[in-house]
Amino acid sequence: MFGLLAKKRGMTQIFDADGNIVPVTVLEAGPCVVISRKNKQHDGYSALQLAFEPCEERRLKKPRLGLFKKKGIAPHAYMREFVLDENIEIAEGKKLSVNFFRVGDMVNVSGMTKGRGFQGVMKRHGKAGGPAAHGSDFHRRPGSIGMRTWPARVFKNTRLPGHMGVERVTIRNLEVVAVHAEENVLLVRGAVPGFNGTLLEVTSTDHSLFDRDKEETKPEANEVKANENIQVSPEEAK
């Protein structure tokens, strides 16, 4: 699973080739620096440790700061691990950017949702509530939550009022609409968790993304292919 750390910068809309409006979320993804590579022999699992958003040393605690100094990498504010196959080789210190993604790729975006505070059952769980007439004594209350004689208790996981939001949510299969490598910006179709500035994890299970980083344009090969398509008449051949 390949992933990048990103920050949500807001939502907007763009027009596709047919002139249809497409709602998109703007993500500032990367560049992320590879801090270390976990392997099954030494750590018991295979993963990639990435750092995101350079910061001042005073923002970090000594253990975290010591790790960056040991690796010879500038301090970064955020660190996350992404599970990765053992056979994929990525060197420590390498910078990963949005160049791995292409338009049409499907990604998963994970992050913390907005905090809503203490909310009732209608907003928190989507219950219908009671009648809205003046004579009703049951408007937005949860209603009956259990039986009296047996079992004489409230069942676990009963949907009741309480704290809402600030929980990790993953939105799956979001389409990449545009990639702006110069600005480290990724546009995905639809909404993602959190407010503007929320730290997000953009992941993909497509391992062919790593092959794109090895692609190199060879002008000589392109010229040869172009010349092969040129048709020459028999008279010119003489």
Write up this protein.
This protein has about 240 residues and is mainly β. The chain has 2 domains: about 1-115 and about 170-235, Translation factors (Elongation Factor Tu (Ef-tu), domain 3), CATH 2.40.30; about 115-165, no CATH class. Helices cover about 15% and strands about 35% of the residues. The protein has helices at about 60-70, 120-125, 210, 220-230, 235; strands at about 1-15, 20-30, 30-40, 45-55, 75-85, 95, 105-110, 115-120, 160-165, 170-180, 185-190, 200-205. The strands form 3 sheets. A 6-stranded antiparallel beta barrel has the order 1-2-11-10-7-12. The longest helix has 10 residues, at about 60-70. Residues about 215-235 have low confidence and may be disordered.
